[in-house]
Amino acid sequence: RSLYRGLAEAARLRMPAEQARAHLWLGRLGGSVAAAGLMQAAAARRHLEQAAEQFTALQMSYEGAQAAQAL
User: Fold this and answer.
1) Could you write out the DSSP letters of every residue in 1-70?
2) 71 three-state secondary structure
3) In whole angstroms, what is the distance from residue 55 CA to residue 57 CA?
4) Per-residue confidence at 2, pLDDT binned at 50, 70, 90?
5) pLDDT for 35
6) Tell me: the pLDDT tens digits for 20-68?
7) Rounded to whole angstroms, how far apart are CA atoms 8 and 27?
8) Distance (Å, rounded) from C-alpha 67 to C-alpha 60?
9) C-alpha distances in Å from residue 23, one per residue of 15, 28, 47
10) What is the CB neighbour count within 10 angstroms for residue 45?
11) How many other CB atoms are found less than 10 A from the CB of residue 31?
12) pLDDT at 13
């Protein structure tokens, strides 16, 4: 729940790098909680895709590679 709040705050404060990091962590954690039935695997994948897209737009290649690898 705190990652969702962090994502909302990053969007509100217009902090795209933090927004992308929140998407990355939601996607990473979503993969494990999807197995537990708490998040759908498709939602976790969407978070990872969004993270990769935002990191690429921000030219943050290391983080973008992490997001792409998690896909």
Assistant:
1) -HHHHHHHHHHHTT-HHHHHHHHHHHHHHHHHHHHTTSS-HHHHHHHHHHHHHHHHHTT-HHHHHHHHHH
2) coil
3) 5
4) confident
5) 58
6) 999 999 999 887 765 567 788 899 999 999 999 999 999 999 999 999 9
7) 15
8) 11
9) 13, 9, 5
10) 16
11) 16
12) 97
Q: Which two tokens stand for residue 71?
A: 């896909």
At residue 59, the pLDDT reads 97
Q: How many CB atoms lie within 10 A of CB 43?
A: 13
Residue 1 has pLDDT above 80, yes or no: no
Cα separation, 6 vs 42, in Å, equals 21
Q: What distance in Å separates the CA atoms of residue 14 and residue 41, rounded to the nearest whole number?
A: 27
Is the Cβ–Cβ distance between 56 and 67 less than 8 Å? no
